[in-house]
Amino acid sequence: MNVPSVSSATNQYASQATSSTPTLGYDNFLKLLLTQMKNQDPTDPMKSTEYMAQLATFSQVEQTMKTNTKLDSLLAASTLTQADGVIGRTLTSADGTISGQVTSVRITSEGAVAQLAGGKELLLGPGIVIS
């Protein structure tokens, strides 16, 4: 039975979250801001309050992205904890049509999927009965 460690799964989810979303780094943002300042119309320059508003907005977006990455890591750790708790136990689907002992669990983008002894799979989620 091979269950990935919390740190490797956390890194996997974090890298998926960051690699799938194109991001503008802080350095790139500052380069764009400086370019905007250099190329502005001298007869109608941008006010310093507008620059500060742009910096504040960028800072908020950057913090939100970091928070999302940390939340993804927590979700991955929670999923692994859930997976560890069901191995060797019997699961029954919410409608009672699928039941069996869990032989292994794999983590997918939808969540933890239990591989049952009979070869069937069951997504761990609401309504699942664990015995």
Q: Quick summary of this structure?
A:
This protein is of the alpha+beta class and 131 residues long. 50% of the residues lie in helices and 18% in strands.
Topology:
Blueprint: H1 6-19, H2 26-38, H3 48-86, E1 90-92, E2 99-108, E3 111-116, E4 121-123, E5 129-130
Antiparallel strand pairs: 1-2, 1-5, 2-3, 3-4
Helix pairs in contact: 1-3
Give the overall shape: rod-shaped
Written as H for each helix and E for each strand, in order along the chain, the element string is HHHEEEEE
Strand order of the largest sheet: 4-3-2-1-5
Oligomerization category of the chains in this entry: single chain
> Main beta sheet: strand number and arrangement?
5 strands, antiparallel
In terms of per-residue confidence, which ranges show pLDDT below 50 for 5 or more consecutive residues? Answer: 1-19
Alpha carbon gyration radius: 23 Å
Overall pLDDT, averaged? Answer: 77
Beta strand count = 5
The percent of residues in helical segments reads 40-55%
Number of DSSP helical runs: 3
- Strand content range: 15-25%
Please tell me the total number of domains: 2
End-to-end Cα distance, whole Å, is: 20 Å
- Judged by helices, strands and strand pairing, the structural class is alpha+beta
